[in-house]
């Protein structure tokens, strides 16, 4: 039995120090039984679609990620956290899975949305990590819309998907629908960490975020969820539930190649 937590939170765009403090405080308040805590897309840096984002972009071996690693170690919990990553002259929408021993795996969002395309480079690799839940694929927000991503991770027989998001509040039903669909079509757990609060940055369009973090069972039903409040969602993921649903919905007995002739 593994326990996951989603400390649903707002993000201060372009203010890394404040966001790091929030992450450390929220992690420290978790119960000792929590194995993994998921924070939302761009949780460390926030995002704006102009050159200002370059000033807060982080390198994965830099001091800010060292602070995240120290937070994971001190609290003996794995952390999933999003940020703008810089590598040489390229910038990425990145999500890091940080284990308590400091080992760090980074996924770069493959499908960029809207203004991201003007300042970021898409990732080109899918990422699977070993977590207390089992083999787990990482997706970011708009990646959920692409069935090909789900099919590829189904072929890899992942036991769970971890999803970071910053979904607009006006489309929150789509976020919830896609989390449920990606759980059912691969018969796996899905944990979605959604940003809440609002973006109010000069020179950008004001935007309210959906929140609505959720843990979805392998049969597509919602096991636990939040609305838009800043509270921590906690759920236990029972491996017997996964085994039962995979026996009932035998997608792994069918070919998953979607090519048609």
Q: Rough shape?
A: globular
Determine the CATH topology.
Nitrilase/N-carbamoyl-D-aminoacid amidohydrolase
Name the CATH superfamily assignment.
Answer: Carbon-nitrogen hydrolase
Q: What is the beta-strand fraction?
A: 25-35%
For the largest sheet, list the strands in their spatial order. Answer: 5-4-3-2-1-14
Helix content: 10-25%
**Under the CATH scheme, which architecture would be assigned?**
4-Layer Sandwich
Number of domains: 1
* Structure classification: alpha/beta
Largest β sheet strand count, sense and barrel closure: 6 strands, mixed
For the termini, the CA-CA separation is 43 Å
| Number of extended strands | 14
| Unreliable stretches covering 5 or more consecutive residues | none
Organism: Halogranum salarium B-1
Domain CN hydrolase: 2-239
InterPro entries: C-N_Hydrolase, C-N_Hydrolase_sf
Protein name: CN hydrolase domain-containing protein
